Structure prediction request, 337 residues.
Amino acid sequence: MTVRSILISTCVMGLLLSGCDDKGSTPAQTGTTAPSAQSGTASKSDSVEKSQKKIRETEKWNSYVALSNTGPLHYEVALKEYVETHVTNGKLDLEKKNPMAGTYFAPRTPSSLNDLTKSATEIAKQEPKWEIDATVVPFCEALLNLTSLLEQAKAYYRSKDYVDDSYARGKELHPKIMAAVETVYKAQDAFEQGMAAMDVQKLLESLQSMRAAGLKIRPAAIDMIQILRESIVEINRVTADGTKPGALTLAEYQPIYDKLVVVYKELEAVISDEALAKQENINMSTLRTLGTSAKNIKRQASSVMEGLQKKIPYTPSSTKDFGGSLSRMVDTYNDLK
Prediction:
């Protein structure tokens, strides 16, 4: 799985938690009566409480960001290589010949995953309470189970124990691995849906604030980032299982592509307006970089569409380009001055 919308979420949370739209943080004064010392103390107390709340929100969100961005990396490469080496149509293939046999697997360090899941499960119990909290523990448990099974398979095949037991242990592990894969995908999907829901909520809040202020360039950039996120989510959803590559269909991707084209044209129009960029205090050099990123995204999406129209199977590895584009565009968006 590639970099997801979590980068967007981080960006939007940064906008919201930085106080740029924190209206009412300083109580309005009315009339000519001077504020009492008591009201001033209360105001400071409210301000401190708000700051502490934002810190807690940021810490919790960052933990979930780390889980979403790096959690799947602990199993994806190992699972892909396990499938390529020993699996055909979801079944253990003892006759499969692969030059990687006995040398595959590159999972992340188990202790790293333990730290990641421990942090996420502990912080899920803390305030503020979010709907997504209920999906964190099942996802962490599923990750730990699958990576443990893949570690066992790695040790088994690397030591060539299958020579002595005629693949008995391999036959025992395989159904457990495939069942664990399904469990991870379901748990991961529930977790990512929760993240996506928060993405949408924060994006809407941010966009409303920006558009209310009369801004055009930044909202157009966020629209582009959001449609790219939707594209990646759809591609990952239908191609995540290494045993079912090429599942993406033209009917599934066409609506997303059509929307991407519209959003791209809107962004292209505003970023070419130097007067508007000056008015919104945006650095033109960074804006041109943003435009290049958007153009690359449009090109990649068009390439996907052309392949689907020609009925060329779409493979999971192709999503890496989109993930890199998402990361670069978010980085450039954050650099807008």
